[in-house]
Amino acid sequence: MPKLMRSEIEKRIDILEDDIADIDPRILRLLLKDKTSKGNILWCTQDYESYGTEYDEHKPMKVELITGELSSVIQPRAAKSKEIQRNRIRNRAEVFTPSWVCNEQNNLIDEAWFGRRNVFNTPHEKTWTTTAERIEFLHPKTWRDYVDAKRLEITCGEAPYLVSRYDTTTGDLIPVYERIGLFDRKMRIVNENCSTDEEWLKWSRRAVQSVFGYEFQGDSVLIARENLLYDYIDYYKDRFSREPSVTELKSIANIIAWNIWQMDGLKYVVPYTCHDTVLDETQLTLFGTSECRIIACPGCTKGDVLQHNGLYCRIFDWTNLKKSVPFVSLLKEN
Q1: Do residues 212 and 150 make contact, with C-beta atoms less than 8 angstroms apart?
Q2: Of the candidates 15, 311, 323, which has an alpha carbon nearest to the alpha carbon of residue 159?
Q3: DSSP labels for 274-287?
Q4: CB under 8 Å to 167, separation ≥6 — which residues?
Q5: Separation CA 249–CA 230 (nearest Å)
Q6: Which helix (H) or strand (E) holds 210?
Q7: Which of 15, 172, 189, 275 has the most CB atoms lying inside 10 A of its own CB?
Q8: What is d(CA 162, CA 31) in angstroms, rounded to the nearest whole number?
């Protein structure tokens, strides 16, 4: 088994799974859950196969595989070796965007929503200056509308557009009030407009419910979930000067497990669930022997995203239906 060494970058930004398990093992188990399959998310990468057969890309990620002596197995991209980074770029087209680029693109989203530029900060070169004044909302839009507005980061990796605890390319930590993620912006609005603790808890929860992301590789899914959870903890501690309770964290972790999910982004199904179907009927061959009839996945054969026989990923509608719906149904509606 390879020796696990923690680099200086990793020490700055890595969330050790042991630390989450120490809070409560149930929280880490939640962060590993696949809400669609009701099992665990899969590794979906060959990067860890040197650790043993349980790390095969088709196998589920388990608590015991990433804790204890193995607590440094999962690392953010900035802490990974250059060779692994190059391999993931080549094999999975994994490219992480610097925070200053995420900021400028997020600013464009807010410019469209607010109808004015540079609402949360003013970018210059490869950094930004945070707006000091309270964010104003013009009728008929309200701060509640902004917090509830749904935001989705596709192929999210470690979710740098949603949360910006650190720069994913340099590993530099970003102070809470300088963060530029879409969730961070919502939390700034919550902080500026919620006067009571009860109101803050309600709307911070709504902020978590409003951000979504999907990713193929299991380690990135876990890191994205951890980043969102720890980003929430940072804002909670800033508000209350204490750690959130286990009950509060479990509730937030459950939302995150629904909202950041593992998916084959070309098929909208849980990875590796498309399959050949073996029919009961048999057919005679030219040589008089019988063979089972095998039918490949129709969606894979025809390139039709609506005809896959894999397990279509489900997401939770927190505001209207208050139940899970297939993600692909959103495509049908549009």
Answers
A1: yes
A2: 15
A3: ---EEEEEEEE-TT
A4: 78, 98, 99, 174
A5: 10
A6: none
A7: 189
A8: 17
Tell me the pLDDT band of 94, cut-offs 50, 70 and 90.
Answer: low
Least confident of 90-104, 124-138, 241-255: 90-104
Percentage of the chain lying above the pLDDT 90 cut: 75
Residue 278 is predicted with a pLDDT of 83
Instruction: Give the mean pLDDT of 53-67.
Output: 97
Average pLDDT over residues 141-165: 96
Distance CA 225, CA 123 (A): 27
Query: How far is it, in rounded angstroms, from Cα 168 to Cα 155?
Result: 15
**Residue 333: predicted pLDDT:** 66
Radius of gyration of the chain (CA): 22
Name the residue among 293, 254, 260 with its Cα closest to residue 277.
Answer: 293
For 49-58, 109-118, 168-177, 178-187, which range has the lowest pLDDT when averaged over its residues?
A: 168-177
* DSSP tag of 124: E
Assign residue 171 a region: left if phi > 0, alpha if psi is -120 to 50, beta otherwise?
left
**Cα atoms in the Cβ-side hemisphere of radius 13 Å centred on 159:** 32
Residues 6+ apart with CB under 8 A from 13: 76, 78, 79, 165, 166, 171, 173
For the record, the structure tokens of 173 come out as: 């930590």
pLDDT of 292: 75
User: Residue 295: is its pLDDT beyond 70?
Assistant: yes
> Cβ distance 271 to 311 under 8 Å?
no
Half-sphere exposure of 153 (CA within 13 A, CB side): 27
> Do the Cβ atoms of 51 and 1 come closer than 8 Å?
yes
Q: Where are the domains of the chain?
A: 8-92, 99-262, 268-334
